[in-house]
Amino acid sequence: MENTFFKSFHIAGFAYYQGALLFSEMKIGSRIELIADEDNKYDSDAVELRFNGKKIGHIPKNANQEISKIIRSGYDIFEAVIQQLSPEEHPEHQVRVAVFVVADQQDD
After folding, report:
1. What pTM does this model have?
2. 4-36 confidence digits (pLDDT tens)
3. Most buried in the list 46, 61, 86, 96, measured by CB within 10 Å?
4. Domain 4-101: which CATH class?
């Protein structure tokens, strides 16, 4: 069974974290870590995005609720990858991330 597409978005706050410094290392298909941002005082559903272990922004507030609840419940069912790179765009629109629900890996 294949992974199931769940959601796609541009990275919120990309211009304010390590994104610009790491942009040249990014490629379509590069993995992005999804981490619950428990200490975010502006958004109780904040999900941090990391590339090569470094924070590059967040899932936008209008797209993070479901992912946040699942991650905070202790489930590790998502795979996030870079879907699009647009260096000519404003930093907030340079990187698009796709999130997939990982297919069941159990043997039948």
Report:
1. 0.91
2. 999 999 999 999 998 888 999 999 999 999 999
3. 46
4. alpha beta
